[in-house]
Write a structure and sequence with these properties.
The protein is of the alpha/beta class. It is built from eight helices and seven strands, in the order E-H-E-E-H-E-H-E-H-E-H-H-H-E-H.
């Protein structure tokens, strides 16, 4: 795959964690077409069949690490930075569903593992890349959070709790890094056909009646294309989103294509943030 000339991310160094997944590989493909240089991270024990078309050369660097392990993340980011001489964009596509079922019946170790991957992993990635971005005068950080961050998700407590925490982390980091010209946002991609989709189907009744209905609807429609999530990630990684930070953006329900020209107005509102609705 050859990088295109004169595109939105021409020459930018983009670190994509979770690049072997359905969304991560779609983001990698789109970014490469837009001229980016890629550091593609995946778990050492995962099959990387989706990354088979990305040959390691001066444009693409393949990395393996466990986001739960700080030393592995730090070393991977340092290697990417040494290889390319910069780090402009982080896209965090890592994540697991975690145990599905009533919270009082699921395994505590499985629940904790989901928190470690989804939340601690997000922190590790930011902790590793933020100093580099601050030093070079700016950058873009994009997390995939999922719809479970915005509303209650019974029977998916580990997933919902950790992904909601990722959105709050996003908001906090946006405030901390604002003066350093580092923008941080999260994406809710919608129901993309992926490993998580298969896990929901396999869970059956343990996922709850509402989820069974959602699965039926997803099977009927085919879900949201991963390319749609990749297009939103491109927007947030590009200069078109300059000034937009601390937001959870839906790839399905938000008209983010219309955001350029409205960003200053958006930033004066609480749109796309986690806020408590006061009780009467």
């Amino acid at each position: 795959m050859a990088a295109a000339i004169g595109k939105e991310l021409q020459g930018k160094v983009c670190f994509i964690a979770g690049a072997s997944g359905a969304i991560g590989s779609a983001v990698a493909e789109r970014f490469l077409r837009e001229g980016a240089r890629l550091a593609l991270g995946s778990h050492a024990r995962k099959a990387d069949s989706r990354l088979a078309g990305f040959s390691s050369d001066d444009t693409v660097l393949r990395l393996q690490f466990d986001v739960r392990c700080w030393n592995e993340v730090q070393q991977a980011v340092e290697r990417a930075h040494e290889n390319f001489g910069a780090l402009d964009v982080l896209v965090n596509c890592t994540g697991v569903q975690g145990p599905i079922g009533p919270a009082h019946t699921v395994g505590p170790d499985d629940w904790a593992r989901a928190i470690e991957i989804n939340l601690l992993g997000a922190f590790h990635l930011v902790r590793a890349v933020a100093p580099l971005m601050i030093q070079q005068g700016g950058g873009k950080i994009v997390h995939f959070s999922g719809g479970g961050a915005a509303y209650a998700r019974p029977f998916f407590t580990a997933y919902a709790a950790s992904k909601a925490a990722v959105v709050r982390l996003t908001e906090c980091l946006a405030g901390e890094l604002h003066e350093s010209n580092v923008q941080v946002n999260s994406i809710a991609p919608g129901p993309v056909r992926s490993r998580m989709w298969d896990e929901m189907r396999a869970a059956g009744a343990a996922a709850g009646a509402k989820t069974l209905l959602e699965i039926a609807q997803m099977e009927e429609t085919g879900g949201i294309p991963a390319s749609r999530a990749a297009a939103l990630a491109l927007f947030l990684a590009s200069s078109r989103s300059n000034g937009l930070t601390g937001r959870l953006i839906s790839g399905v329900h938000d008209r983010w294509e219309d955001f350029p020209g409205k960003i200053s107005t958006i930033m004066k509102t609480e749109g796309g943030t986690l806020r408590r609705v006061p009780l009467d």
